[in-house]
Amino acid sequence: MWLMLLLQPYCAYGFGITGSAETKQFIKNGGYIVQDAAGLLQYREQDLFVPASTLKILTCLIAFRQLGKDYRFETHFFVDQQKNLYIKGYGDPFLTSEAVLEIGKKLAKRGVARLGSLFLDESSFTLNEETASRENSDNSYDAPNGALAVNFNTLPVHVARNAIITSGEPQTPLLAMMMEAGSGLSPGSYHLNVATLPQPGRLSPALRYTGELFIAQLQQAGIHVQKGYSRKFVPKGLKPIYIHRGIKSLEEIIRSCLKYSNNYVANQLFLACGANLFGLPASWEKSRRTFTLFAEKTLKLSPSQISVQEGSGLSRQNKISPVALLTILELFKPYSALLNLKNNILLKSGTMKDVYCYAGYFPQGNNLTPFAILLNQPQNNREQILHILHTAHRLRTLSQINQ
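^ thats the sequence. predicted structure below, dont judge the formating
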């Protein structure tokens, strides 16, 4: 009897068909779905909504399927007869200051000591200046993607009260770019999106950042570059003297991407998937085709249920229905432990202006019940809806056990 009394609020309004009155009061424009052993809890489950960062679950799923959990990005290094060093990038999202210093040490062990020029080759990506979001901002999470980029294309700068400018992190040396960028900033610590920095020369700020960091870290490893850096393709026929395999495996990259909801990393994965299926150079269009094919052939979803423009969730042109997100979550179950655990719920959030989403699983013993909540409205009521759905799920599960 007590169990029926507890369940009554969740059954009285036809919860499994149209959504309960308790959830509807929190929804102006949104939908949800939960599928457990007792059936479905759902509301507007077929309608399309902007998913924000919950889309990263799909990006990570396709990356696992396309590339494999042990996949590592590569960066290739070449030296010509004039002792010029060529660096050709293939989209490693974790080409950090630490990784660049380690590369310098590896090159030094191979006898590299003095170099003429440093040449940067980013031809494995053809992005045509397109960015993930049409609303690109100066936020670090809006940093541009590229084949050869360092430190997630964000520049760490610290400005002291006496106006002295230093690097914003100990592992990254002070660069000329930092001095220029910091000269107009108030005291404080910053991680600057390189796309927002001035472009006085022919090189993009992103490629300039790569050149300056490599020269500084090579110097620290005992390698001197005499003539600076510029953009230049690797000559045909030149063989690499060193191939750097990324410091993180794909599984480690995805764990970090989901934990910190890193948009830059998600779109490096998005672009890598397209290149894997359709060949280099990577492009936004190849990756969109890859995701469309995966949705149609593997997920059995139509364009009326999902439309993907990029892999991070930054674009408001991304659209997905709650039932489509549930389908993705079913296939993502083997990787569910990579999601953050919050109040005993495996959870991925998605947040933008007027977009508040949750997706993940309600763990129950060895079982995982997937759920999706997509709100495209000014009111952020996802916590209330999540609580109601989680409570209903637990009571329904208890009811099934006691029958």
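Confidence is low (pLDDT under 50) at residues 1-18.
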